[in-house]
Design a protein that fits this description.
Number of strands: 19
Structural class: alpha/beta
Oligomer: single chain
Bound molecules: iron/sulfur cluster
Number of helices: 16
Helix content: 25-40%
Strand order of the largest sheet: 5-4-3-6-7
Shape: globular
Radius of gyration: 21 Å
């Protein structure tokens, strides 16, 4: 019987089994940002400890940075203090920082793959839930809290509960206008937001095999929204081609040696799984959330659910979500008026996301009542988009074109919803108040669907608006 990638990587990184039943895992790469690290560094200072492996630790600034100009000090004193603390801590503890002004700055889950830091077979930790993104490379990647950030800084190890593996095969082929975001929203809708608790998700099947690395990152990014502790795709030739030539990837013969090892850590064909699920990719349509968690979604051609049609256990949660969202039960999702359109985040702030959205808006204007923001996931994405003229496409359509950062995904910066605004968003969480206003509302969808909603002024099927040759 063969092994899964998770089992192989887990065994290779096991320091010891703990009396609690947990495993002490060595962490190959620790990614740090300004929000979850200040207290962790303070705790090291208090105990007189250093960073155990500064050469395996990299920092950037993303959550709190303003995206409409970044003069220092920031207008928000708290944000300024957080960034100043990160800069001081990185200097004092010898951690490389891709800070403001650096060509390598951006959202932590966007820059690490860009730089070739994220590699197959690694264990990766970061104080952000969406660290699962890095699983796209065949890494085993966990989001951690501040006390675990301290532990990894001090010891490069984490105490982890064992995980089961669920293989999710996405069969068939996606229709035009259906993207990785739609696949993961459909998976979470099918399996539930708690369905992955205790599992790592292994994504496979012909649809995943054909995905680019950007698309695989979108897929793995939202594993955590389905309750899974991690999500991954087995490394293949697409993975290797992406990594070749990146700054921190091995090169020359070292790359060839690494590539042989990377291929070997993929799940074996006869690996046994704790669970297996198949999703018909060909049956998927563009997805939109209608509720207050990412599992509460439907195809754009479907209707907002009627609580009275739902089983008792879920009925009150659905009624509560619909009351918050102000959506009328039973009415079509398409036609829901939106106030804000946000394209960005670690889920969908990569160059290919901006390219797909630009295909929708090119030569069009966004509706007069819509405030549109395009926020590249990294400085590198920003600059590449500018070189292609995408910034002009978005600006001419009426979008604001911003600097790299988390922006309105989390609104720990000036980009936020106001009052009851309803936002078509390419981010990953539609929780109550997530985008900055305690009463703000979020509809999750693909970047192309956000672009279409911005143009139409309401939720609409992007397939009506796609221009140019098929690319996905
Ligand atoms: S874009 Fe959102 S989910 Fe991603 S790192 Fe930033 S705040 Fe976290």
């Amino acid at each position: 019987m063969g092994s899964t990638l998770l089992a192989k990587v887990w065994d290779l990184h096991t320091v010891r089994r703990l009396p609690t039943g947990q495993t002490q895992l060595f962490i190959g790469l620790h990614l740090v940002h300004e929000v979850t690290s200040p207290q962790a560094f303070d705790m090291l200072r208090l105990r007189g400890r250093g960073v155990a492996f500064p050469e395996r630790t990299f920092a950037t600034a993303d959550h709190i940075v303003p995206t409409d100009g970044q003069p220092r000090p920031f207008a928000d004193d708290m944000a300024e203090q957080m960034l100043a603390a990160l800069e001081r801590n990185c200097r004092e503890f010898g951690v490389p920082l891709f800070g403001l002004g650096s060509d390598d700055q951006g959202i932590v889950h966007v820059i690490s793959p860009e730089l070739g830091l994220t590699q197959p077979g690694m264990t990766i930790a970061c104080g952000d839930s969406h660290t699962s993104t890095h699983g796209a490379f065949g890494a085993v990647a966990f989001g951690i809290g501040t006390s675990q950030v301290r532990d990894v800084l001090a010891s490069q190890c984490l105490a982890m509960d064992p995980l089961k593996v669920r293989r999710i095969a996405v069969d068939g082929a996606l229709a035009r206008g259906v993207y990785a975001k739609d696949v993961i929203l459909a998976i979470i809708r099918t399996l539930g937001v708690q369905g992955g608790v205790g599992f790592a998700y292994e994504y496979a099947g012909p649809v995943v095999d054909r995905m680019t690395m950007d698309e695989r990152m979108t897929l793995c990014n939202m594993s955590i929204e389905g309750g899974a502790r991690a999500g991954y795709v087995n490394p293949d030739e697409t993975t290797l081609a992406y990594l070749q030539g990146r700054r921190f990837a091995p090169d020359g013969e070292a790359f060839d040696r690494a590539a042989a090892w990377w291929r070997s850590i993929a799940s074996d064909p006869d690996a046994a799984y704790d669970d297996e699920v198949a999703i018909d990719g060909g049956a998927l349509q563009p997805m939109v959330t209608w509720g207050t968690n990412p599992g509460q979604s439907a195809g754009v051609g479907e209707r907002v659910p009627q609580p009275s049609d739902i089983a008792d256990v879920e009925r009150s949660a659905i009624a509560d979500a619909l009351a918050y969202m102000g959506l009328e039960p039973g009415r079509p999702l398409a036609g829901t008026r939106v106030d804000v359109a946000f394209i960005g985040s670690c889920t969908n702030g990569r160059l290919s996301d901006l390219q797909e959205a630009a295909r929708v808006v090119r030569g069009r204007r966004i509706a007069p009542h819509v405030r549109g923001l395009v926020v590249p996931g990294s400085k590198r994405v920003h600059d590449a988009a500018v070189r292609e003229g995408l910034h002009d496409v978005f600006r001419e359509a009426g979008f604001e074109w911003r600097q790299a950062g988390c922006s309105m995904c989390l609104a720990m910066n000036p980009d936020r919803l106001e009052g009851r605004e309803l936002c078509a968003s390419s981010s990953n969480r539609n929780f109550k108040g997530r985008q900055g206003s305690p009463t703000g509302r979020t509809l999750l969808m693909s970047p192309a669907m956000v672009a279409a909603a911005a143009v139409a002024g309401e939720v609409t099927d992007v397939r009506r608006l796609l221009q140019g040759p098929e690319t996905s």
